[in-house]
Amino acid sequence: MALENAVIQQKLIDQFGLKVSEFIQLHDILTFEVTSDSILEVMQFLRDDQTLRFNFLTDVCGIHYPENEENRQLAVVYHMHNWIDGVRIRIKCFLPLSNPEIDSAVPLFLGANWMERETYDFFGIIFKGHPQLKRILNMDEMTVFPMRKEFPLEDGGRTDKDDRFFGRTQSNC
């Protein structure tokens, strides 16, 4: 018997109540929100439960939603995979821009190490308890987090580009 999204949702609600919410299915993947202070306990339950068996953390990444209210502007997104039943889920945890901290998933999944460092490097999300949280791709001297939407896409002082070659000309039609 295949593991169905309704079973996953019901087990999570039974175990965690209001700590899990906003269940929707997007592109055949069950997506839901978890309060940031409960993420490790939810992920451990998903991994260790004999029915759910989400034994692989596929991805950890960040998203910046500047249009959201201040305490929901940053999100950490986790993708987990149950290899036995071939089921994937997506978990979102929203964080305030003023204090973007969440517990590290490294104690549960060693593979989270690099992904959390990358998310910190590009979004400034702090993973508490991470064994070596420092920039991994950008220079240590950077004071900005380039994937946040307030970061400019281009250097306004560049003179070596002609916008006509990038489809950015304005038509007078």
| Mean of residue pLDDT values | 90
CATH architecture: 2-Layer Sandwich
Gap between N and C termini, in Å?
Answer: 60 Å
- Characterize the largest beta sheet: strand count, sense, and whether it forms a barrel: 5 strands, mixed
> What is CATH's topology name?
Beta Polymerase, domain 2
The number of helices is 3
Poorly predicted segments? none
Query: What structural category characterises the helix and strand content?
Result: alpha/beta
CATH class: Alpha Beta
Envelope shape: elongated
The CATH homologous superfamily corresponds to NADH:ubiquinone oxidoreductase Nqo5 subunit
| Strand segment count | 7
Keywords:
alpha/beta, 3 helices, Beta Polymerase, domain 2, two-stranded parallel ribbon, 173 residues, elongated, five-stranded mixed beta sheet, 27% strand
Task: Chart the SSEs and their pairings.
Layout: H1 5-16, E1 20-26, E2 29-34, H2 39-48, E3 56-64, E4 74-82, E5 87-95, E6 101-103, H3 112-123, E7 126-128
Parallel strand pairs: 2-5, 6-7
Antiparallel strand pairs: 1-2, 3-4, 4-5
General description of the model:
The chain is an alpha/beta fold. It has a single domain, classed as 2-Layer Sandwich (Beta Polymerase, domain 2). Helix content is 20%, strand content 27%. The protein contains three helices and seven strands. It has helices at 5-16, 39-48, 112-123, and strands at residues 20-26, 29-34, 56-64, 74-82, 87-95, 101-103, 126-128. The strands form two sheets. It has a five-stranded mixed beta sheet. Strands 6-7 form a two-stranded parallel ribbon.
